[in-house]
UniProtKB/TrEMBL annotation:
The keyword Oxidoreductase applies. Residues 10-321 form the Enoyl reductase (ER) domain. It comes from Pseudonocardia alaniniphila. Keywords: NADP, Oxidoreductase. It comes from the Bacteria. PANTHER family: QUINONE OXIDOREDUCTASE PIG3-RELATED, QUINONE OXIDOREDUCTASE-RELATED. The keyword Cytoplasm does not apply. Signal peptide: none annotated. This is Quinone oxidoreductase. Gene3D superfamilies: Medium-chain alcohol dehydrogenases, catalytic domain, NAD(P)-binding Rossmann-like Domain.
Length: 323
C-alpha cells in the first residue's frame, strides 16, 4: 500500500511517500480502507520530536473509511461498515488497523470527508465547552485562532450554548470565517497594542469567564490577563510554542483564577465515553448546529505541503489527506 513514512524526526520534509506491506488486523482490530485522513497539530508535535516516537513510523491518528477485514474476536463491526477514528497511528496511508473499541460508526448523512474532518477537532470542542468549562448562557468567552480547525468548531459550539464569543485571528479572511461561525467580536492580534486590554474593553472592564487558548506561548499572558475574577484559562495547545513554567501566585493575583491543560484522550478514555461524545458531535452536524469546514484537501503524497501550510498559518478549518 501507499503510505507516508517518517524515518527521523524533523521538519515537514521528513514526511516521505513509501510503498509498505498492508497492516494485518490482530485480535480486536479492524483493517480499514482510509477514505480521508485528518491532519492535526499533534501530527506536527510527533513529527518534530516534541512528542518522541519509535522510528520508523507512519504518522496520522485520525480518519474515516470502510472496514475491509476483521481480526479475531471482533463482534461489533462487519466488513463494509463505515467507521471513523482518532487514535490509530498510521492513518496517513491507504489502509490502517484500528482497535475496534476505538472505532465509531459513521451515521448515514455524514460523508467520509466530514467524519474525518469532524471527529478529533469536534470532540475537542465538545469536551472544552461541555466538561472542562461548561459554558453557560450569557457568558463571555475568548477563543484564540478561531478560524482554525478546532477554533471554528469551538466558536460554533460556544455560541450555540448561548455564550458571547470574542475571537482572535490574524487576517481579514479569518475574521470573516470567525464571524460566520458565531463570534460576536473579533480581534486581529496584530492590530491591537494590548490584547487583554482589548478583551476587557469589550466586556465593560470585567474580563471573560473562560479563555480557550490553543496558541500557547504568544497568547498565554494575555489570556490570563483577560479573565474575570474566578475565570478559567483552558490552555489546550501550543501552536506558537510551549508555555514556560507558571508561578501559581499569578492565579491568586489575577483574582483566584483557574488554569487547566486538558487533552482529548482523557475525555474519551473509555469506549462508552468515546461513543457518547462521537454520537453527540455527529448529531450536531446532522441537526445543523455544527458546520464542518474542510478548508484544504491534499493528495496523500503531499502530506509535507499540508504540514507546511498548517504551521505557516495559511490554513482555515480542517486539512484532509485523500489517499
Ligand atoms: P489550527 O487550524 O488552529 O492551526 C493553528 C492556528 O494557530 C493557525 O492557523 C494560526 O491562526 C494560529 N497561530 C497563532 N500563532 C501561531 C504560530 N506561531 N504558528 C502557527 N500557528 C499559529 O490547528 P488545529 O485546529 O489542528 O489545532 C489547534 C490547536 O489545538 C493546536 O495547538 C493543537 O495542538 C490543539 N489541540 C489540542 C487538543 C487537546 O486535546 N488538547 C486536541 C486538538 C487540538 P491565526 O493565523 O488566526 O493566528
Amino acid at each position: 500500500m501507499r503510505a507516508i513514512q517518517i524515518i527521523n524526526a524533523g521538519g515537514p520534509e521528513v514526511l516521505n511517500p513509501a510503498e509498505l506491506p498492508d497492516p494485518e488486523p490482530g485480535p480486536g482490530e479492524l483493517l480499514v480502507g482510509v477514505a480521508a485522513a485528518g491532519v492535526n497539530y499533534i501530527d506536527v508535535y510527533q513529527r518534530n520530536g516534541t512528542y518522541p516516537m519509535a522510528m520508523p513510523y507512519v504518522p496520522g491518528l485520525e480518519g474515516a473509511g470502510r472496514v475491509l477485514a476483521l481480526g479475531p474476536d471482533v463482534t461489533d463491526f462487519a466488513v463494509g461498515d463505515r467507521v471513523a477514528w482518532v487514535e490509530a497511528l498510521g492513518s496517513y496511508a491507504e489502509r490502517v488497523t484500528v482497535v475496534a473499541d476505538k472505532a465509531v460508526p459513521v451515521p448515514p448523512g455524514v460523508s467520509d470527508e466530514v467524519a474525518a474532518g469532524l471527529l478529533l477537532q469536534g470532540m475537542t470542542a465538545h469536551f472544552l465547552v461541555n466538561d472542562t468549562h461548561p459554558v453557560q448562557h450569557g457568558e463571555d468567552v475568548l477563543v484564540h485562532a478561531a478560524a482554525g480547525g478546532v477554533g471554528l468548531l469551538l466558536t460554533q459550539l460556544a455560541a450555540a450554548r448561548g455564550a458571547r464569543v470574542i475571537a482572535t485571528v490574524s487576517t481579514a479572511e479569518k475574521e470573516e470565517l470567525a464571524r460566520a461561525a458565531g463570534a460576536a467580536d473579533v480581534i486581529r492580534y496584530g492590530e491591537v497594542a494590548d490584547l487583554a486590554d482589548a478583551v476587557r474593553n469589550l466586556t465593560g472592564g470585567a474580563g471573560v469567564h473562560a479563555a480557550y487558548d490553543s496558541v500557547g506561548r504568544s497568547t498565554f499572558d494575555a489570556s490570563l490577563a483577560s479573565l474575570r475574577r474566578r475565570g478559567m484559562l483552558v490552555l489546550f495547545g501550543g501552536s506558537s510554542g510551549p508555555v514556560p513554567p507558571v508561578d501559581p501566585m499569578r492565579l491568586n493575583a489575577g483574582g483566584s483564577l483557574f488554569l487547566t491543560r486538558p487533552k482529548l484522550f482523557d475525555y474519551i478514555s473509555t469506549p462508552e465515553e468515546l461513543r457518547t461524545r462521537a454520537t453527540d458531535v455527529f448529531a450536531e452536524v446532522v441537526d445543523g448546529t455544527l458546520d464542518v469546514r474542510i478548508g484544504h484537501r491534499y493528495a496523500l503524497a503531499d502530506a509535507a505541503t499540508a504540514h507546511e501550510d498548517l504551521q505557516g498559518r495559511r490554513t482555515t478549518g480542517k486539512l484532509l489527506l485523500l489517499p
